[in-house]
């Protein structure tokens, strides 16, 4: 491995709360760049226009900055190979697609959504994996031209060999062979002219001179598609490295349905970014027992991409807690500790805005902590007694909280207005008055039936913390409802 010309990137999609898995992959790329004197680049992959939002992009930037990682090129800092948002690069992809159409590496597909769904249903009924059946693969050039001229909607698909296999070397898994028959004829260009992830990914990595692509192992099966695109374009692919996914103790995939996964959640609970990076960095290095407490500089020094484990990276929250405690006690001076606590309490305006909301609800300053303390608490200590004074039964309360938790995920922009709008809509859909729906939520997010305004509180707590508190409430209420049956 030489030190010259190494360029790596992190390319998150702004379609939700930034995941700790994003920080995990970003850290690997950052360590790789620093170890070999290369460049670490941030690119926003927002080709999914229906789910990508400016708010989520800002959350991605804020979350990665909070971790302490820095990039030399990106949408916020610019660079010689911009733009660094795929949505701003639309016109750059078409020439590459046209080249593949011209040399037979791609073809026009006019199949309607109805035909594709019927095809998939037939494949599922026959016990076959769903995949494009090649219906438009051999259309004559004259027919294609005529149908395009007539304005018929169409996409562009990747032409895939029918025999043999794609053989490549992965920086983690070694030599890999994937049969071509298992590779789908992927859509490369959508009907609206936007590229799919696979096409944009390859073109952007080429144009930004990316030398090494390090990403999660879930993308390993996509490598044949990417290699095929590189071949059809006559380009040299980068070195691929697929990292083991972070998993729960039961080896299941780390997901927000089971555990908190948002970077913002760990920030809100008062984890230090240095501790989180320390914890994630341990997956990429070999150390002896007792050497766990490491700064970023020490992680870079010990980082060795030639000696990575293919075993699953277990997200052990107890180990993270232990490391975070050690950072608080051993790495911070008393003055640093006080400053960190003050900065943390001010994050997202929680303390200041919470105090403003409390002003009209107290007669003495001493009443502020029990009233507003839930904004800074890790756990509001929900028990069956917490819900005891509600007018709704445990079963009805459970129905309300469960419905609200699922529907809140649909909110694209998280603020007081959108939260209120969604809760009013939920009340209407459930056929309940808003004053029936809100009391259980007061208890779920604050631990008390007397609290600050609900919509404001949920906005200040943030989506990831509210999600987790509702999840805990559901567990308590499920036990209560079950005990009554």
TrEMBL record:
A motif ('KMSKS' region) lies at residues 253-257. Pfam families: Anticodon_2, tRNA-synt_1c. Keywords: Aminoacyl-tRNA synthetase, ATP-binding, Cytoplasm, Ligase, Metal-binding, Nucleotide-binding, Protein biosynthesis, Zinc. It comes from Peteryoungia desertarenae. Its main location: cytoplasm. This is Glutamate--tRNA ligase. Monomer. A motif ('HIGH' region) lies at residues 12-22. It comes from the Bacteria. Belongs to the class-I aminoacyl-tRNA synthetase family. Glutamate--tRNA ligase type 1 subfamily. GO terms for molecular function: glutamate-tRNA ligase activity. Its cofactor is Zn(2+).
